[in-house]
Amino acid sequence: MGYMIVPLVTKSSWLDGRAYANELRCCIRRKFKAIRKQNFNTQILRPIAGGLKALTRLKGLHLSNNSFTDGLPEVVSRLNLLESLNLYGCKLTGLPATLKALTRLKRLRLSNNPFSDGLPEIVSQLSLLESLNLSRCKFTRLPATLKALTRLKVLDLSNNFFPDGLPEVVSQLNLLESLNLSNCRLKRLPAT
């Protein structure tokens, strides 16, 4: 016995709601190929990952609070029209190199993930990024390659710990308009 609440506004191509995995998989494959934004939080993605590839026009995908301990599902890298990807709290320790196929990505939320070797280098290859949320990732440093994100306007580094001060690469992000450093326990800021 299942239920499905699906408020669908056809003009904006939004689908949001709750459903049992089998029902949602059915809807994705048969009815909603034109969906542009989808919210799959709280661990329902695994059973329906195969159905995601049918969403060829998807521009926004929220996968917050899933448990991707085996890594991000490959199907996400195939959604090449994505402009916004939310991976908040997904227990990610790294990101696949295939993520660079998301060449239109403008907004990426990676907050609250325990990246084991710091920020994955692949993030620096997402050249159209305008907004990057790295809060609560327990970072102590950032890679110098981050300066390749020449279009970055919003950077959230809150709730990380930078014992040597703000990473120098931040001062090289010339278009930055918003920088969140709340609760980073900074002792100094760079002179430039």
Give a description of the structure.
It is built from 2 helices and 11 strands. The chain is mainly beta and 192 residues long. Helix 1 packs parallel to helix 2 (45-52). It is globular, with a radius of gyration of 18 Å. The termini are far apart.
Topology readout:
Layout: E1 4-5, E2 8-9, E3 14-15, E4 18-19, H1 21-30, E5 37-39, H2 45-52, E6 60-62, E7 84-86, E8 107-109, E9 131-133, E10 154-156, E11 178-180
Parallel strand pairs: 3-5, 5-6, 6-7, 7-8, 8-9, 9-10, 10-11
Antiparallel strand pairs: 1-4, 2-3
Helix pairs in contact: 1-2
Structure summary:
With 192 residues, this protein is mainly beta.
Tell me the name of the CATH class of the largest domain. Alpha Beta
Contiguous low-pLDDT stretches (5 residues minimum) are 1-35
Q: At the fourth CATH level, what is the homologous superfamily of the largest domain?
A: Ribonuclease Inhibitor
The total tally of domains equals 2
CATH architecture of the largest domain: Alpha-Beta Horseshoe
DSSP, total strands = 11
Number of helices: 2
Order of helices and strands: EEEEHEHEEEEEE
The portion of residues forming beta strands comes to: 15-25%
User: Which range best describes the helical content: under 10%, 10-25%, 25-40%, 40-55%, 55-70% or over 70%?
Assistant: under 10%
Structural class: mainly beta
Mean pLDDT reading: 80
Strand order of the largest sheet: 2-3-5-6-7-8-9-10-11
N-to-C span: 61 Å
- Write down the CATH topology of the largest domain: Leucine-rich repeat, LRR (right-handed beta-alpha superhelix)
